[in-house]
């Protein structure tokens, strides 16, 4: 029961008419009003009693997400950098892809340019991936909080569509803010050392020879591709973790299980967005590979006509089925484990204070 001015408002079954004589029961309209008032009062009381999130805690959560995301992205991309570079070389050329040809290219690069050349362009990748992953993971956490408040959830899992939306918005936010770095990384991956000596040289030559607008060439297919990629990746990973909690008795997933969930998420996300990834690379490297600059639709038609719809638009996808799940699995697992570690450290520091 709840004390209210002028008496006691009872919210137990007896107050709702379960065992009250008919002669003294309230009418239907009055009873509904009392019940609605009791529900509203209970909700307002819960909201008032729940501790507000302090600005300091909010800033700590954002910084924690940024740091965890940056380290997760750096580790994941460094792990698969040789495969990623090989995939880009095939994507921007008209050569037919096969696992045998990919291995031959990796071995030839190793023989002629040395082992570390397999990571050529990885410095540009780190310059892009560290802020990209930091922004993406942090934005995802913030979008989840915003959508959770909108749907009236108190830390619970989002419904399916908002879960998909949170991932897509996080990907769009990160891609929009870091796109020029992605273009520079693609240029360095497909050109010899003599053409671009470092990241700053790429920016300088693009500005001098092609203009600043070139830094966002291929941005449209990137955004169109990141919506299904990021949306499905985060959606799948969060859904699998939720199913694990539901059927595993609330037990937290182990690192190996998180890797498996991330691998499934990466497989679905990259398969759905792969043709747009091929178009994006063609547009990004048009200035150095001889491909004409064109619209998304025209580039798609050209690739399908000259190289075949499946062979051209899905060139290198089999390598992505190896690289992608590994990268996404490492990324999501590292982020989760770092978040858990940082929360424990913050809790220990708060208890000591």
Your description of this structure?
The protein is mainly α and 353 residues long. The protein has 13 helices and two strands. The chain has helices spanning 28-49, 55-79, 81-91, 99-113, 122-150, 160-190, 199-209, 219-247, 255-284, 286-289, 296-307, 309-313, 317-352, and strands at 2-4, 7-9. The chain has a two-stranded antiparallel sheet with strand order 1-2. Helix 5 runs antiparallel to helix 6 (160-190). The longest helix has 36 residues, at 317-352.
Q: How many strands, which pairing sense, and closed or not: the largest β-sheet?
A: 2 strands, antiparallel
Calculate Rg over CA atoms. 27 Å
Please state how the strands of the largest beta sheet are arranged side by side: 1-2
As a percent range, the share of helical residues equals over 70%
Mean pLDDT: 80
Stretches where pLDDT falls below 50 for ≥5 residues? 1-31, 39-51
Order of helices and strands: EEHHHHHHHHHHHHH
What is the number of helices? Answer: 13
Euclidean distance between termini CA atoms? 39 Å
Approximately what portion of the residues adopt beta-strand conformation? under 5%
Count the E strands.
2
Broad shape: globular
Class from secondary-structure proportions: mainly alpha
């Amino acid at each position: 029961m709840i004390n209210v001015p002028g008496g006691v408002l009872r919210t137990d079954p007896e107050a709702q008419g379960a065992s009250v004589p008919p002669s003294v029961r309230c009418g239907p309209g009055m009873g509904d009003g009392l019940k609605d008032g009791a529900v509203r009062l209970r909700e307002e009381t819960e909201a008032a009693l729940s501790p507000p999130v302090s600005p300091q805690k909010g800033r700590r959560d954002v910084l924690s997400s940024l740091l965890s995301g940056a380290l997760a992205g750096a580790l994941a991309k460094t792990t698969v950098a040789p495969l990623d570079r090989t995939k880009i070389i095939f994507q921007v050329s008209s050569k037919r892809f096969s696992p045998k040809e990919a291995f031959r290219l990796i071995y030839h690069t190793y023989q002629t340019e040395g082992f570390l050349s397999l990571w050529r362009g990885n410095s540009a990748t780190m310059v892009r991936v560290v802020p990209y992953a930091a922004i993406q993971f942090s934005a995802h956490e913030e979008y989840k909080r915003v959508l959770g408040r909108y749907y009236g959830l108190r830390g619970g899992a989002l419904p399916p569509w908002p879960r998909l939306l949170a991932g897509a918005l996080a990907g769009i936010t990160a891609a929009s803010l870091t796109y020029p770095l992605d273009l520079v990384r693609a240029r360095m991956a497909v050109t010899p050392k003599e053409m671009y000596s470092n990241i700053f040289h790429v920016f300088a030559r693009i500005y001098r020879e092609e203009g600043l607008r070139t830094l966002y060439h291929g941005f449209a297919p990137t955004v169109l591709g990141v919506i299904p990629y990021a949306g499905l990746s985060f959606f799948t990973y969060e859904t699998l973790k939720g199913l694990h909690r539901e059927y595993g008795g609330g037990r937290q997933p182990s690192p190996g299980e998180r890797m498996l969930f991330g691998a499934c998420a990466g497989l679905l996300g990259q398969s759905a967005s792969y043709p747009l990834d091929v178009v994006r690379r063609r547009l990004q490297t048009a200035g150095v590979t001889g491909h004409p600059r064109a619209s998304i639709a025209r580039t798609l038609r050209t690739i399908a006509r000259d190289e075949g719809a499946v062979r051209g638009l899905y060139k290198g996808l089999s390598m992505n089925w190896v690289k992608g799940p590994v990268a996404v699995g490492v990324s999501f697992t590292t982020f989760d484990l770092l978040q858990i570690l940082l929360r424990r450290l913050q809790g220990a520091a708060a208890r000591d204070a």
